[in-house]
C-alpha cells in the first residue's frame, strides 16, 4: 500500500473557522452543556438556526419518526412531506411556489436564477444584473459572495462573479442611479444580520417595491436570518406591509436540520421549468418532516405575539444596560429577537467576556455583539442574560483598569 506524503502541520478539519475553544455535548431548551459540565445560556441559536432551542421534544419526535420510515429518495420521485410544506408556506405567505434546498446560500443561488430567468423568459435576456447593498451577507458560494460584495470574503478567489451592482444600504437615490438597461432585480435583507444588525427603514423597502414595479424588476428579500418568526412576524417584511417577488429562507426553518426554501410568485417563477434547477438532497423526507414540525410550532396561536412581548422586554433591559455602561456599549439595535449591541470596545472582547460568564453571543459587522436567543425564551432567561452582561461589563472594566 502506498503512503501519501503530507506536508505541513494542518489539522484534519480544514482550518477555515476561527473557533472558540469550546465544545458541547448536549443541549436542552435555551441551554448548552460543555463536556466539563459548564452550562451556557445560548443567545446565538446556532446563528439564528435553533429557533426552538435544543432537543425540543416535538422536533425530536418528528425527526425520529421519519428516520424510521425513509430518509432519502431524491427528487426523481414525489416527496409528500415536501408537497405539504410547500402548500403550507404558500398559504402563509405571498408565494405561489417553493423550491427546497439545503442551506441559505443554495436558496440565494436559486433566487438569483429565478430573477435572471424571469427576464430571459420575458424576452429580455440582456437583463441579468441585480442591485445589492453594502454590508450584505448572502452566503459563501461564489455568486452569493459577489452579491454580498464584501472584499474580505472575495479575496483570493479570482474574478468576482459578474452581475451585481452594490449601493449604500438605505440610499434610494443610489438604487435609482444603479438601475439600467441590464438590471433584472433588487436583492436586500430587510434586517442585515452579519453586516451589523441594520434594519432597512420601512419607507425605503416600500420605495424599493415601487421602483421594482416601475422598472419591471423583481424584488427579492433575503430572510434567511430575520425570517421564521425572529422579528415577531413570520417574516420581517410583514411589518412593512409589502411583499417581495422572490424570497430566500433557511436557518430556523429546519430548527437545526439543514433546509432552505426559495419562495416565489407564479409570475416570478414562470421561467423555472423542469431542468432549470435541481438538488440531490434538497427537500428530502427528513428535512421536510422537521420543516413541517417547525411550522406547526411557529404558526401556533399566540406564538408570534409572545415573541413580540418577550423581545420588547429584552430590548428594554438591554437599553438600560447600554445607558449604564456607556463606556462599553453605544446603542442597541435590531428587531424582535435579532438584536445587536454596538460596542465601544472590540466586539471580540465583549463576546469573550460574555462567554466567560456563561452567555453565548455572536459577532457581527460594525463592531456589534449579536444576540440571537431561541424564540422560546422566557423572562427568566432575559433576567439571567442581563445579569451575565452586567457581570461581563464589570470584567471588561476591571481588565481595562489593570492595563491602564
Present the secondary structure layout.
Layout (H helix, E strand, L loop, with lengths): L23 E5 L2 E4 L4 E4 L2 H4 L8 H11 L12 H13 L4 E5 L2 H18 L7 E5 L8 H7 L2 H4 L9 E4 L4 H7 L4 E6 L2 E2 L5 E2 L2 H14 L2 E5 L23 E4 L10 E5 L20 H14 L4 H22 L4 E7 L2 E6 L3 H10 L2 E2 L1 E3 L3 E4 L7 H25 L1
Parallel strand pairs: 3-15, 5-6, 5-7, 7-10, 10-11
Antiparallel strand pairs: 1-2, 2-3, 4-12, 8-9, 11-12, 13-14, 14-17, 16-17
The first-to-last residue Cα distance is 61 Å
Strand content bin = 15-25%
Q: Tally the helices: what do you get?
A: 12
Mean pLDDT value: 96
SSE string: EEEHHHEHEHHEHEEEHEEEHHEEHEEEH
Coarse morphology: globular
Could you give me the name of the CATH homologous superfamily of the largest domain?
Type I PLP-dependent aspartate aminotransferase-like (Major domain)
Number of domains: 2
What is the CATH fold-level name of the largest domain?
Aspartate Aminotransferase, domain 2
Named CATH architecture of the largest domain: 3-Layer(aba) Sandwich
CATH class division of the largest domain = Alpha Beta
Low-confidence stretches: none
Helix content: 25-40%
Largest sheet: 7 strands, mixed
Structural class per helix/strand content? alpha/beta
Strand tally is 17
Strand order of the largest sheet: 4-12-11-10-7-5-6
Radius of gyration: 22 Å
Amino acid at each position: 500500500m502506498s503512503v501519501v506524503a503530507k506536508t505541513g502541520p494542518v489539522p484534519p478539519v480544514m482550518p477555515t473557522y476561527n473557533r472558540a475553544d469550546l465544545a458541547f455535548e448536549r443541549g436542552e431548551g435555551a441551554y448548552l452543556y460543555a463536556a466539563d459540565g459548564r452550562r451556557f445560556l445560548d443567545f446565538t441559536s446556532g446563528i439564528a438556526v435553533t429557533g426552538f432551542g435544543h432537543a425540543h421534544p416535538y422536533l425530536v419526535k418528528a425527526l425520529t419518526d421519519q428516520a424510521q420510515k425513509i430518509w432519502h429518495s431524491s427528487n426523481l420521485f414525489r416527496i409528500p412531506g415536501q408537497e405539504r410544506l410547500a402548500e403550507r408556506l404558500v398559504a402563509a405567505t405571498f408565494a405561489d411556489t417553493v423550491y427546497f434546498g439545503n442551506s441559505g446560500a443554495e436558496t440565494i443561488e436559486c433566487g438569483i436564477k429565478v430573477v435572471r430567468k424571469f427576464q430571459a423568459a420575458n424576452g429580455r435576456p440582456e437583463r441579468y444584473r441585480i442591485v445589492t447593498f453594502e454590508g450584505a451577507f448572502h452566503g459563501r458560494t461564489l455568486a452569493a459572495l459577489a452579491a454580498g460584495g464584501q472584499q474580505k470574503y472575495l479575496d483570493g478567489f479570482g474574478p468576482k462573479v459578474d452581475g451585481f451592482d452594490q449601493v449604500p444600504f438605505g440610499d434610494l437615490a443610489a438604487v435609482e442611479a444603479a438601475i439600467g438597461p441590464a438590471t433584472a432585480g433588487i436583492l436586500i435583507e430587510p434586517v442585515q444580520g452579519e453586516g451589523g444588525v441594520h434594519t432597512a427603514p420601512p419607507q425605503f423597502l416600500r420605495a424599493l417595491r415601487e421602483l421594482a414595479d416601475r422598472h419591471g424588476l423583481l424584488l427579492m428579500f433575503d430572510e434567511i436570518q430575520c425570517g421564521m418568526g425572529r422579528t415577531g412576524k413570520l417574516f420581517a417584511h410583514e411589518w412593512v406591509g409589502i411583499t417581495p417577488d422572490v424570497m430566500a429562507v433557511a436557518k430556523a426553518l429546519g430548527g437545526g436540520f439543514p433546509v432552505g426554501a426559495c419562495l416565489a410568485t407564479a409570475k416570478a417563477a414562470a421561467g423555472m421549468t423542469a431542468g432549470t434547477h435541481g438538488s440531490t438532497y434538497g427537500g428530502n423526507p427528513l428535512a421536510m418532516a422537521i420543516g413541517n414540525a417547525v411550522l406547526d410550532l411557529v404558526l401556533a396561536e399566540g406564538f408570534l405575539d409572545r415573541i413580540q412581548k418577550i423581545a420588547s422586554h429584552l430590548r428594554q433591559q438591554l437599553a438600560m444596560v447600554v445607558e449604564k455602561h456607556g463606556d462599553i456599549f453605544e446603542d442597541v439595535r435590531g428587531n424582535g429577537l435579532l438584536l445587536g449591541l454596538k460596542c465601544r470596545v472590540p466586539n471580540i472582547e465583549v463576546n469573550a467576556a460574555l462567554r466567560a460568564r456563561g452567555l453565548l453571543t455572536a459577532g457581527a459587522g460594525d463592531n456589534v455583539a449579536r444576540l440571537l436567543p431561541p424564540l422560546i425564551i422566557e423572562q427568566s432567561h432575559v433576567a439571567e442574560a442581563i445579569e451575565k452582561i452586567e457581570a461581563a461589563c464589570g470584567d471588561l472594566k476591571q481588565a481595562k483598569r489593570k492595563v491602564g
